[in-house]
Amino acid sequence: MTWLVTGGAGYIGAHVVRAMLQSGQDVVALDDLSTGDPARIPGAELVEGTVLDRALLDRVVKERAVTGVVHIAAKKQVAESVAEPLHYYRENVDGLLTLLEACRAGGVDRFVFSSSAATYGMPDVDLVTEETPKEPMSPYGETKLVGEWLLNACAAAHGLRVMSMRYFNVAGAATPELGDPGIFNLVPLVFQALTAGRRPTVFGTDYPTPDGTCVRDYVHVADIAEAHLAAARALDDGADGATYNIGRGAGSSVLEVIDVIGQVTGLDATPELVDRRPGDPARVVAAVDKIRVGLGFEARYDLTAMVESAWAGWQLRHP
Questions:
Q1: 199-257 pLDDT, tens per residue?
Q2: Tell me, what CATH number does 95's domain have?
């Protein structure tokens, strides 16, 4: 049984490929290398190409006797999706559609989909369950929700068994060379500010949270990879499809994250406090009971471990 991992040379995809290979799975990675790097997956089979290339997908599925897909390849920047919605729908929705057509033609019957907490939008709840209403606030979040709908339709019509994995705020690295090269999320943004001699910016200190700053559920990328591996194994064992949150079930505020970054880096992380940005929900924390029961998965790494591993990766890329 062979698993095709799309986006397999990217930040999250490389962690998934490595986890699956270490578990003994037969894996082939597909990546267009727009943000991926073959050096992240040494020794793994890599096919360079895009999920929009139907002929390539048909060939890979047939030649490698693919039985399952972990679909991670996608555009994922919220602000960019607002500016370029056509690009995001083409890459994320048309790409998934093309991939599913190849799966159906090739007899692939199991599918793990990297979805996102962005499907929920601004939920006004203490813990976000898988049944919390989905009201995405960006084209990126919309494409992930549309992807889930498309997969559910294929499951009903064609017997495809689908695990949709909605992950929350991903951070950290299994090894320094697998660190996130992007500077879009809180942890690398703070690293960038501190190493440039600037104070990190905190947007809003008057939210209804313990310290007035936004609270999020941060989850280590190595835990994300283990959750995908658990989903693939469950499908190989004949499990039915399901949708799961991937998080720790615990929130950390912006100030708490910056404080840990200061402790780990040894740098003065005193922030600059400014007014709120529009559209930031006060609290988004995952309920994780369902994935614990359904897949036996529970996140292992805490916030300090995430920051320490992310900092090691940052130092490797910015000596």
A1: 999 999 999 999 999 999 999 999 999 999 999 999 999 999 999 999 999 999 999 99
A2: 3.40.50.720
Core vs surface per residue 245-267: b (16+ CB within 10 A) or e? bbbbbebbbbbbbbbbbbebbeb
Q: Does 218 qualify as catalytic in the annotation?
A: no
State the catalytic residue, choosing from 89, 140, 218, 244. Answer: 140
Shared domain check, 165 and 180: no
Q: Cα angle at 122 between 118 and 123, to 5 degrees?
A: 105
The C-alpha atoms of residue 150 and residue 142 are separated, in whole angstroms, by: 12
Nearest-angstrom CA–CA distance, 211 and 213: 6
pLDDT score recorded for residue 279: 84
Picking from 269, 279, 262, the residue whose alpha carbon sits closest to that of residue 199 is 269
- Average pLDDT of every residue of the chain: 97
- Largest Cα–Cα separation, the chain: 57
For residue 45, pLDDT beyond 90: yes
Partners of 114 in the beta sheet?
165
For 266-275, what is each residue's pLDDT tens digit?
Answer: 999 999 999 9
| Domain, as residue range, for 87 | 2-170+219-246
Task: Say how far apart CA 9 and CA 299 lie, in whole Å.
Answer: 23
C-alpha 146/C-alpha 246 separation (Å) is 19
CA distance 33 to 36: 4
